[in-house]
Predict the structure.
Amino acid sequence: MGNYILKRLISAIPVLLGITIIVFLIMAMIPGDPATAILGSYATPENVEKLNRDLGLDKPLVTRYFIWLGNMLTGDFGRSFSLNRPVIDEILERFNATLILAGTSWLLCAIFGILAGVISASRQYGFADKAITFVVLIGISVPSFFLGMMMILLFAVNLRWLPASGMFAIYGGGDLPDLLRHLAMPAVALAVVATGVVARLSRSAMLEVLRQDYIRTARAKGVGERRVLYGHALRAAMVSIIPVLGIQAGFVLSGSVFIEIVFQWPGVGRMLVDAILTRDILLVQGGVVFVAACYVFFNICVDVAQSLLDPRIKT
Amino acid sequence: MKFLKLLFRNRLAALGAVVLGLILLIVLITPLLPLQDPDVTNTSNRFLTPFSEGHLLGTDHLGRDLLSRLLYGTRVSLAVGIFAALIAGTIGSAIGIVAGYFGGRTDNVIMRGVDMLMAFPYILLALAIVAALGPGLFNALIAVAAVNIPFFARNIRGVTVSLAGREFIDAARLSGMGHTRIILTELLPNVLSTIVIAMSTTVGWMILETAGLSFLGLGSQPPQADLGSMLGEARAQLITDPHTSIIPGIMIFLIVMSINLLGDGVRDALDPRLRSGALTRPRAQTMVEREGPVPADDGKGLLNLQALSTQFHVGGRVYKAVNDVSLHVKPGECLGVIGESGSGKSVTALSVMGLVPSPPGVVTSGAVRYEGDDLLDMPFEKLRQRRGDKVAYIFQDPLSTLHPLYRVGDQLKEAISVHHKVPDKELEQRAIDLLRSVRIPNAADRIRNYPHEMSGGMRQRVGIAMALANDPDVIIADEPTTALDVTVQAQILSLLDDLRREHGLAIIFITHDFGVVAQLCDRVAVMYGGKIVEEGTTTDILDHPAHPYTKRLMACVPELGAGKRELAAIPGLPPIVSDLPPGCAFAPRCDKATEACRQGEIALEGGRHAVRCIHPEEEVA
C-alpha cells in the first residue's frame, strides 16, 4: 500500500509540472506589455519598469518559467499588488474557507447522491424512483448561482431562518453553530448539481451490478434483500461511483467560485474573481496553480481509496 | 428514422425538444418583434413589476424593458454557447482524430497534454484564460471553448482508435491514399455522428458556463445583455426587486433542462441495452402469475416440480423457456437434466428458488414443492430462509458468480451466518472446514484469498463449499464442471458423488455432457425446446435411447477407443422458444419426422422410461 501511494505521488509530478506550464503559457498570452496591462494606462513609467523587473519580463520565456517555478517551490508566489501582501499568505487564508465550503458540499453530494441512486435503483420504475429522477433532473438543470439567490430569497429574506451571506456573524459569532448556520445555504446550493450527477450515476451503476451473477449467488445463499442491496451490490457499484466522486470534487471546486460570490463567502474563488477584475495577475496565477495542485492531490486520495476498495487493482 | 421514432416515443425527450424549439423560434424572430430597444435606459421607470403598462415583464434597475433584454440576452447566450460548442468540437475532434489515427508517440504526447488540461477544475482554467485576455464576451467564449476541448479530444480519440484498426482504413492506406485524404474521406464521415452528439450534449454546459462567467462580470460587458450578466446585475436588487433575478434565471433553467432532456433521450435511443430492457433490475423473487389451477401435491420426491412453466416476456414477445416440466428428486438421488444450450434446463433450475431474473421472467403455471410446500406460493421471507439452507445452488463460471470484492472466506461465512447465529470464531473454523471438505489445500490461508487470486478449479470448489455450507437437503448444480479441464472435472464429480452418499443429498445435475451423466446420475431427463422429451434411469437412456433427439445427442459424443467414427452433429439449430412449431419441436431437424409429428401436442408416454415421440427409436416400458 505504501508503495502504491508513493508511486501515485511520483506520477503526480509531471502532472503538476504540466499545470504550471499551462498556467504560465496562458499568462504569457497577455496581449501587449503585461506590466502596463496590469498597472493600467495611468501607471508611471518607473512603476511599469519596476514591475517588469519584478516579473522578470526582461528575460526569455523559458528562463522566466524556471525562475517562477523555483520561487513557487520555495513558497514564494510573488506579491499581490492590489492587496500589497504575499500571494501565498492570501491564498492560505482564503483556502480554508473554500475547503470548508467545497468539502461540505462534496460530502453532501457523496452521501445524498449515492443514497438517492441506491433507493432509485432498488425501486426501479416505482414511485420513489420516478420522484427522485424528476428531482434530479430539475437539480442538474438549475444553475447553482441562481439557486443560491433563490435560497437567499426564501430562507434568509422571507423565512429569516438563515443568514444571507458571510462565513461568521459580525458580532458575537465565530463558533461552530454560527459557522454551520452560515454554511448551510451555500453548501447545499453548491452540492445540488453534483448530487444529481452522483445520483444518476449511482442508479445506473447499481442497475448494472444488480444484473450480475454474483448478486444471483448472494440471493441463492438466502441473503436478505437489504443486505443484497447495501452489502453486495453497493459495494461493487462503488468501484464505478468513486472515480465520479473524484470528478465531482473538481465540479464542486469550480462551482464554489459562483457560490462564494453569491453568498459573500471569503474563499479563493471570490479572491480570484476580484483579482481578475483588478488585473492582479500574480494573485490569479498563484491561486490557480495552488487550487489545481490541491485537486491533483485529492484525486490521488481518490485513487488510493479505490485501491483499498477493489483488491483487483494492483498496488 | 428509427432513431427519431425512438427519441420521440420518449415523452420527456419530446417535451425537451418542444421547449427548446419554441425558445429557438422566439429568439430567431426577436428582431422582428415590436420590442423596445433592450439598451435604452429610462430611470423614471425603474423596477416596474411584471405586467406593467408597456412592459410585460417589467423593467430593471435602469428602467430597461426586461422582456426585450431577456429575448436579446437569450439570443446572445445561445449564440455564444453554440459557437463555443462548435469551436471546442472542431478543435477537440481534430486533436482527437490526429491522436487516434497516428497513434504511437503522437498519441502519447497529445493525450498527456489533454490529461494535464483535465487535471484542472474546469472553471480555474477558464478564469486563467479570462484573466490573461481580459473580461469580455468574446474572451469568455474563447475560455469556455478552450476548457471543453479536452473532453472532445478524449472522446473522439477513443472512437478513432477503434476505427483506425479496421480493414477499410488499411485498404485505403494500401491503395496509396495520403493521411489527410484518409482522415477526411474515410475517417471523418464515420466519427461525425459521435462529434455531433457530443456537441449537442455539451452545448448545455457551455451555455451555462458562459452565463456563469457573465454572472461574475467576466463575460458580456454593459450595456449588452446576456442571461448571465442580467442575473449578475440583478443580484444587487435581489431582495427589493426579485423579479429582475427570477426572469433570467428561469430562462437559463428552461434552456438547460430542455437540452438535458433531449440529451438523455438521444442517449437512451442510442443505447441498445436500454431498448431491450436489459438494464432492468431483477427482483428478489421471480414473478409468479399462474393461469389455471395449481396442481395438487402428488407426494413425489423431496423436491417436486409439477407442470412448471416459466416464460420471458420481452417487448410483446413471449419466450416459453420452460414448458410444462415435471421433475422430482428423492433424498440421496441424483437426477441429470441434459440438453443443448437454450433447451430451458438452466431456467428450470433457477425457477425452483425464484431466481429467474424478473422482469422479464414469469412463472406462468405449475408448482414447485419442497417437502410438500409450494415454493412459488411462499412469502418471500419464508422462501429466503430455505434458499441456501435447504436448497442450495452451484453455478457455472465461478469467476462471475463469486463476489469479486469479498474474500472467499467471508463469502462462505456469510452463507452460514444469514441462516444460523454462530459465533465469529466458530464461523471462521466452519469456513476452513468447508474448504477442506472440498479438498482445497492450505484452507486456513485460502479463506483470505479473493476470487481473482484463485484458479478456475479452486473457485469452483469454493462455489461447491458455499452450497454445502448449511448441509442442505437438495443441491441444484448448473453445469458446475463445464468451464474446467477434465482432471479437475473428474475430481469434482467424485466429490459430489461422495457427498451424496455420505449426506443423503439430493442432487439435480444440469449438463450437456452424457459422460458426466453416466458417471453420476441415477435418472436422466432430456430437455428440448423447453420440454422434457425423454425421461428414465441412466441405464435405460444410455443403452436404449428412445427419442431421436436423445440418440442424436449421444452420437455427438466421441468415444475413446471407438476407432475412426464419424461424429454426427445434429443438423439445424435449436428452436427459438418464442416461435415454437406446433407438435414436436424437434421435427424440423429429425429425419424420422412425418406429417403427424407437426400436428398438435405429443404426450410424454411410458412408465419408468417415458418418451415424447410418435416414432420412438425403441419401445419404452
